[in-house]
Amino acid sequence: MSSLARKLQEQQSQERQHVTKPERKRALWHQVTPGEKLIWVLFAALLCFGAVQIVTAQSAIYKVNKDIQEVKTSINDQERVNADLKVQVKELSKYDRIMLKAKEHGLNLNENNVKVVQ
């Protein structure tokens, strides 16, 4: 009986092994189809194109801002020159200086010929 019991036990263990055989799990990631590949490539291309456009726009904005700053600097320099020239005009148009230059050129002031304009 021991051999018969042993055979029976071996058969039951073999059946258990066949029954408890793990089932094959389905893959969560199926193979990528050509359509999906095309979509991903287009997405990557659009992303790169957008990035290049943003960098190009920022570069143009930087250049315009730089030009604006240069123009503002040149305007300030010209205003300073203009202010200096106005001061120089005021100094050169003083009455005493005009009389001195007139006398140097041989002109004299005749009070009878002077008309006051207001």
Question: Could you explain how this protein is built, in words?
Answer:
With 118 residues, the chain is mainly α. The chain has a domain at 57-106. Helices cover 74% and strands 0% of the residues. The protein has helices at 2-19, 34-92, 95-104. The longest helix is centred in the middle third of the chain and has 59 residues, at 34-92. The mean pLDDT is 87. This is Cell division protein FtsL. Essential cell division protein. Residues 1-25 are annotated as: Disordered. It comes from Neobacillus notoginsengisoli. It is found in: Cell membrane.
Offer a concise description of the structure.
This protein has three helices and no strands.
**Which class of secondary structure composition applies to the elements?**
mainly alpha
Mean pLDDT: 87
* Helical percentage: over 70%
- Poorly predicted regions are none
Total count of strands: 0
Quaternary form: single chain
Rg estimate, integer Å: 51 Å
Whole-Å distance between the termini?
Answer: 149 Å
Strand content: under 5%
Helical stretch tally: 3
Largest sheet: none
Order of helices and strands: HHH
What sort of overall outline do the alpha carbons produce when their principal axes are compared?
A: rod-shaped
Transmembrane segments: 38-62
Region (Disordered): 1-25
Keywords: Cell cycle, Cell division, Cell membrane, Membrane, Transmembrane, Transmembrane helix
Protein name: Cell division protein FtsL
